[in-house]
Amino acid sequence: MQYHLLGKSDLAVSEIGFGCMSLGNDDAANASLLHHACDQGINFFDTADLYEHGQNEITIGKALQDRRSSVIIATKVGNQWKEDGSGWDWNPRKAYIMAAVEASLQRLKTDYIDLYQLHGGTIDDPIEETIEAFETLQQQGKIRYYGISSIRPNVIREYVQRSGMVSVMMQYSLLDRRPEETAFPLLLENNIGVLARGSVAKGLLVNKPAAPYLNYTAEEVSAAAAAVKAFSTASRDAAQTALQFVLQQPAVSSAVVGIRTTAQLEDALRAVKSAALLPDEIKKLQQAVTINTYDQHR
Fold it and tell me: Which among 214, 253, 251, 271 has a CA at the least distance from the CA of 40?
């Protein structure tokens, strides 16, 4: 396992991050899986207060409590559950963030969060107030660093210019190269790490039947999947090829993979042990489908 400093922080995150959203409700099974991930070198675990009404944080807190000093825990804030549990409202206000962090700390059984992330964001948010909340929590020692989870170029630009964030979580794959246009260059220039999610495009690059995805037709998706398969070998299957494509992007610090089972964990681990893509292979994968760009929130 290789590790990369996350932007300008001192957080050395594993190149494969454990996306915890997919975990089930069995605390014992989750603990076994999370411990196995730790033993194999994964040290970055990503969750959110939104997942399972906070139960996801609880299961992670129980599992990692005795390994707290050797793991990096990231969680997210901004989606406030309605009192009747029917859904949630977007709330990036300082008062809410300051209260929500206390609940996350309690559920995670820790007195600090390594990376606290805004779980979305719009250009119309009270951005200065949101940043002030994160900066205050950092000064109080309740969080070590903060970032945002966003695919919106206009929002990312604002936080780059106005905040001390160290990371942006965003979707990136062969079928979603939108970040390459402006986001990746901007983040690289400002030493802000990318946490990439969606590396296999909901399985469309690996094993699911072709279907329309973003602005791509089913035929274009099929062509991209065929290219991934063409550059896969006995020692690097399609999922690992798709992951390698993401990991070899200079802006990416870690590919966060949703993991629920031991088999999925082993697949992700094999990706980092597989042969790296050659420059010519990367170029041909890029040529397999026309690059897409963001058409909103620019």
Answer: 271
Side-chain half-sphere CA neighbours of 235 within 13 A: 6
- 3 state SS of 214: coil
Averaged over successive runs of 10 residues, the pLDDT of the chain (298 residues) comes to: 95 96 92 96 95 92 95 95 84 96 97 96 95 97 97 96 97 97 97 96 92 96 95 87 94 95 90 85 94 89
pLDDT at 298: 82
H and E: helices and strands count for the chain? 10, 12
**Greatest CA separation for the chain:** 54
**What is the distance between the alpha carbons of residues 9 and 17, in angstroms, rounded to a whole number?**
17
Let me know: does 66 contact 39? Beta carbons within 8 Å. no
Asked if 145 is an active-site residue, the reply is: no
pTM above the 0.85 mark? yes
Backbone angles phi, psi at 69, to 5 degrees: -70, -15
The Cα–Cα gap between 249 and 149 comes to 18
Considering only CA atoms, give the Rg of the chain.
19
Active-site annotation holder among 51, 146, 159, 172 = 51
* Cβ atoms 152, 297 nearer than 8 A: yes
Structure tokens at 46: 């990503």
Sequence-ordered alpha helix ranges (H) in the chain? 27-39, 55-64, 94-107, 127-140, 153-162, 183-189, 218-230, 238-247, 262-273, 279-287
Asked if 198 and 172 touch (Cβ cutoff 8 Å), the reply is: yes
From CA 146, how far away is CA 164, in angstroms rounded? 8
Residue closest to 169 by CA, chosen among 6, 9, 294: 6
pLDDT of residue 81: 81
